[in-house]
Amino acid sequence: MDDRGFDLEGRLHDLEDADLKRTLSPVDRVAERGYFAEPSGGELPVLDSTEALVFASNNYLGLTNDQRIEDAARQAAATVGTGAGASRLVTGDTMVHQDLERQLAETKGTERALAFSSGYAANVGTITALDPDVIFSDEYNHASIIDGCRLTDAETIVYDHCDATSLRTKLERRAAFDDANEESWLIVTDSVFSMDGTVAPMADICDAAEAFGAWVMADEAHATGLYADGGGVVQAEGLGDRVDIQMGTLSKALASQGGYVAGSSDLIECLLNDARPFVFSTGLAPPAAAAASEALHVARHTDVRERLWENVAHLRDGLESMGFTVLGDSQILPVLVGDREDALALADELQDRGVIAPAIRPPTVPERTSRIRIVPIASHEQGDIVKCLEAFRGAGEEIGLL
Ligand SMILES: Cc1ncc(COP(=O)(O)O)c(C=O)c1O
């Protein structure tokens, strides 16, 4: 009998040949520094003997090992339970979920919010539940948005990255096919793009949407907790009443796990009935919900955001004055290298100097734009930023980039 199974070995070889095979390199803890291990396959990993500075995490506010947040998670585990035990719609809805959602809605200035078990689930669940006829999507949107679009019957029209003029042109062209105004249209964009550090022109996107009656959905995964009063770009730009759907994750600045959607009461009622990843998945674990609530509180009411933005300014200035090109205009600092081999060599040299910051290369980014994606976090000390800059100088000189 012929084998009807799967040629996994062949697939892995293909990935290796194309230099696309990924590996897992564990670290002892999630913080601004840690001991990493080489990829070990299924074997027990062996941690390095020296500590590295981490400049590649989305733990932007450095809250993953903050005492207040640990205590909140511990207390929720002890008093509510370690897991939700069922879908929120069955018996998995708890007071910590309700508390988190109330705080998210307050931060985002919306009537209500709904927590999902991941940001990925929130995007896929929301887009599929809305079930638009046409989706207008930024060309660099996150994979979870792309997958949400693929799972609907919608026609997805991709516009140029962060280009509201390109969006308008696509809206105009589509409107010519729909003169009876019968289609439902959704414009969806990341607010901060994680590989480019760019910020979407949200006000211009809202102008374009309003001119054509479309709804706007903003993915604030890389913005939540970092901007005005602990909100995202939507709050920083005062667009709360113009963006219909604000989505985000609890797993980056909020130091936890999970995702959320904030919007009108009707939106939330529809999602909790129709978003399949919400309905048919166990509720967010109570310790994760409690940790995210506490982190949101810290983001809103302390100086932690200021510390992040000071580190961002210091690092950007230092890199630019050395002669590196730093892209974007957010806390994410992609250092443009160009050639993929140079980017890999730079990442290796940085690692040798105790700095972890990976090379991002095609197909994740376009050809000839390989880069090092570097992100400071609020808990890096000034000395850590200086060490990172020294590592860039040494590594850049070593491979002839400076
Ligand atoms: C823009 C964006 N949206 C959504 C997600 C998914 O969030 P989560 O990691 O919580 O599933 C991510 C994270 O990787 C992201 O970068």
TrEMBL record:
It catalyses: 6-carboxyhexanoyl-[ACP] + L-alanine + H(+) = (8S)-8-amino-7-oxononanoate + holo-[ACP] + CO2. Belongs to the class-II pyridoxal-phosphate-dependent aminotransferase family. BioF subfamily. It comes from Natronolimnohabitans innermongolicus JCM 12255. The keyword Cell membrane does not apply. InterPro entries: Aminotrans_II_pyridoxalP_BS (IPR001917), Aminotransferase_I/II_large (IPR004839), AON_synthase_class-II (IPR050087), PyrdxlP-dep_Trfase (IPR015424), PyrdxlP-dep_Trfase_major (IPR015421), PyrdxlP-dep_Trfase_small (IPR015422). Its EC number is 2.3.1.47. One of its GO terms (molecular function) is 8-amino-7-oxononanoate synthase activity. PANTHER family: 8-AMINO-7-OXONONANOATE SYNTHASE, CLASS II AMINOTRANSFERASE/8-AMINO-7-OXONONANOATE SYNTHASE. Residues 53-391 form the Aminotransferase class I/classII large domain. Homodimer. Its cofactor is pyridoxal 5'-phosphate. PROSITE patterns: AA_TRANSFER_CLASS_2. GO terms for biological process: biotin biosynthetic process. This is 8-amino-7-oxononanoate synthase. Keywords: Biotin biosynthesis, Pyridoxal phosphate, Transferase.
